[in-house]
Amino acid sequence: MSNENLKNLFPEENQIPKEFKVKFPLHQTEYLINGELRVWSGPMQDVYSPICLKVSDKVTQEQMGSYPLLTEKEALQALQSAEDAYDLGRGEWPTRSIQERIDSVSNFAEALQKKREEIIKLLMWEIGKSFKDSAKEFDRTIIYIQDTIDALKDLDRISSRFQIESGVIAQIRRAPLGVVLCMGPFNYPLNETFTTLIPALIMGNTVVFKPPKIGVLLFQPILEIFKDAFPKGVVNTIYGDGRTVVGPIMESGRINVLAFIGSSRVANILKKQHPLPNRLRSVLGLEAKNPAIILPDADIDLAVKEGVLGALSFNGQRCTALKIFFVHSKIVDQFIEKFIKQITALKLGMPWESGVNITPLPEENKSDFLTSLIEDAKKHGAKIMNPNGGEFDSTLFTPAVLFPVNEKMQLYSEEQFGPLIPIVPYDNIEEPIKYIVESKYGQQVSIFGKDTAEIASLIDHLVNQVCRVNINSQCQRGPDIFPFTGKKDSAEGTLSVSDALRVFTIRTLVAAKETEINKDIITNIVKNHKSNFLSTDFIL
């Protein structure tokens, strides 16, 4: 596909289906602090959609709107608001009963569903995600919230009992940690953000929330819902340059938990800014370079099908994407032939188009970055194997299969986070194993094959290198009840529906010697419902 043909995939304004149009520009001037929607009158950051429009035969990026560029002053106000709401653990929110916090989160989810159509369209326009995947992200988020509520009910039932050991009566529950700084990623700005924000909130923490640099405007319809669903100061939002608004918050030493999904480079900067490292708990979802190992006896058709999905879902802009393929030399030619056939059949276009697979890229200068990786790979001996691979026009980039890839190339070790598919031929299984061992990432791996003895041997080795081994299937996060984490530079802390409840809390207990006076005190407190913590009530 030539650049001219790519350009023709971008629509003129009158070609946009009516049901997918959004009234732009959307200038978001509000931010939430201390239960107030405050209006910003200072500098603003322009937001441009990756969905370009053809105007007079030229492709141009249209301005979607803008958001506030807050200052250190507003950031520290948001922090103070969260601290006041937490009030050293004595605030209204952390001392509420679990049922009361569940009710607030349920009300939030119910109100959020009423904004479904609006948020889905903003996802499409702001990050270029297809309508199908945008709807899936929204719906998955609602399901995640409900699953979190159900998991908390289960946890509460287990905790609603006393233990007596060695003459000591105790009740063990989980208590919040304090103020959480929550920062999500652009590729799943709603879902991934809420996989940290919701468990942090429902367990009694207060939050300072900064949306990702890309994927900001979709939170505008949610601000009012945050304000109405939670007590003042429990959720606070900040916008702007990270160095300006996040740096001072971390440097204050008053953040208890850093919940960040993004790059390890940024995570390291943030952690180093905190002056009290022993006080800070970090919950991090970072980058990965997940490999696929295609064994010589693999079902090639299955490996190709899963490989294409794993490498190119949402243009490969997922930490869980398959980002490098090790294919045995005996079958590598067949694999590439079939892989190219499936890639060639993929549909490039706009997010609202039925059956679209490859959509515009939202990151600034992303096409240039991907092109630089291709040129570096070609310089060291790789070729683009598929027709039109690597061609682009503005934000629309044609997937490229590169072969043979070797350790001299940036693409061998650097995460591309886009529609490039590097293929490495191998003869000895120790070659991909060595790659995984020496990689600075350790999230997941996919193994494709049939030999049970070889697969079993790989499993026993690789579970000590990565945190999920997928057999004859692509790498992925879900189902959300499964642990989601990584080793090395890929993650810190474990996220899943139940694990997240634990990661934003700490086990805390009330204990007393088993004397008559203590038994009377505990019985009186429990019988008369004098404490939300010390209680045998549980939620059905």
Kindly, what is the distance between the CA atoms of the first and last residues, rounded to a whole number of angstroms?
58 Å
- Into which percent range does the helicity of residues fall? 25-40%
What class do helices, strands and sheet pairing give? alpha/beta
CATH superfamily of the largest domain: Aldehyde Dehydrogenase, Chain A, domain 1
**Strand residues, percent:** 15-25%
Output the CATH topology of the largest domain.
Aldehyde Dehydrogenase, Chain A, domain 1
Task: Give the name of the CATH architecture of the largest domain.
Answer: 3-Layer(aba) Sandwich
Number of helices: 19
Strand order of the largest sheet: 15-18-19-14-13-21-22
Largest sheet: 7 strands, mixed
Low-pLDDT sequence parts: none
CA-based shape: globular
Number of domains: 2
Structural Rg: 25 Å
What is the total tally of β strands? 25
**Highest-level CATH class of the largest domain:** Alpha Beta
What is the overall pLDDT average? 96
Can you describe this structure?
- This protein has 540 residues and is an alpha/beta fold.
- The protein has two domains: 70-161 and 175-285, Aldehyde Dehydrogenase, Chain A, domain 1, CATH 3.40.605; 290-489, Aldehyde Dehydrogenase, Chain A, domain 2, CATH 3.40.309.10.
- It has 19 helices and 25 strands.
- The strands form seven sheets. Strands 15-18-19-14-13-21-22 form a seven-stranded mixed sheet, sandwiched between helices. A six-stranded mixed sheet has the order 10-9-8-11-12-24, with helices on both faces. A three-stranded mixed sheet has the order 1-5-4.
- Helix 17 (452-462) links the parallel strand 21 (444-448) and strand 22 (468-471).
- Helix 5 crosses helix 6, helix 6 (131-159) runs parallel beside helix 7 and helix 12 packs across helix 13 (332-344).
- The chain starts with a helix and ends in a 13-residue tail after the last helix.
